[in-house]
Amino acid sequence: MRTSTKNPYEIFIIIIVTVIVIIVIIIVIIVMIFIVIVIIVIIVMVIIIVIITIICHSWICREPGLDSALYAHSGNAKPGGHWGHRCDIVIVIVIIIVIVIVIIDIVIIIAIVIVIIVMVVIIIIIDIVIVINVIVIVIIVIIIVIVITIFIIIIIVTVLIVIIVIVIVIVLIVIIVTIVMVIIIVTIVIVTIVSVTSAVSPLCPLGARESCGDIGGHHLDLTWGFQLCPGVSPDVFDGVPGVPQVCKDT
């Protein structure tokens, strides 16, 4: 009974092919994990954009809209407010950052796929050149090591860049949302103090719609924290019923 024995040359080839196959499998696993992370990041960014949009376009950040009879009478009716527009700028910046991250991720994934294809081709070449001199195999091994090293460096640098960008974006969003929340809280405190301390004032306190007429014309000014009577000249109020003298004098 014959027993087949493999020579060292064949064992060397088998080891090389096995190592390359293992590396390809590891790279595929890394790619799948990377894709999952990218999807999670995109979902988180979308949720953050939705939250910012809701906050910035809610009633607390808007000036009088088309339902304001006084603004409609004075010809100044307009939907939304300057805070909404500023938040829109932040949202656009976040969307641009998300698009950049997605483009970078797509490029990385394409590069990884190319590397995998190259490694598969190298395996095929190794099988073809089994009968060739060992020096050729050594050269191929060196090339493989160089390619893998470069690939690992690219992955590490890219992951670090993506992590840094994500951290910066999250920090900026947290800072912006915190500032908006602080402004809102301070505004509510100031308006409450003004409402309690001033019985009749040129500044219409929050909730005192009867002081300026129930026409939906006064609004919350987030810049100064007061609910201002809309319009600064008496002629704005001409022809609008139910406007008391306290607003005409502002």
From TrEMBL:
<keyword id="KW-0812">Transmembrane</keyword>
<feature type="transmembrane region" description="Helical">
    <location>
        <begin position="129"/>
        <end position="155"/>
    </location>
</feature>
<keyword id="KW-0472">Membrane</keyword>
<keyword id="KW-1133">Transmembrane helix</keyword>
<feature type="transmembrane region" description="Helical">
    <location>
        <begin position="12"/>
        <end position="31"/>
    </location>
</feature>
<protein>
    <submittedName>
        <fullName>Uncharacterized protein</fullName>
    </submittedName>
</protein>
<feature type="transmembrane region" description="Helical">
    <location>
        <begin position="89"/>
        <end position="122"/>
    </location>
</feature>
<feature type="transmembrane region" description="Helical">
    <location>
        <begin position="161"/>
        <end position="194"/>
    </location>
</feature>
<feature type="transmembrane region" description="Helical">
    <location>
        <begin position="38"/>
        <end position="60"/>
    </location>
</feature>
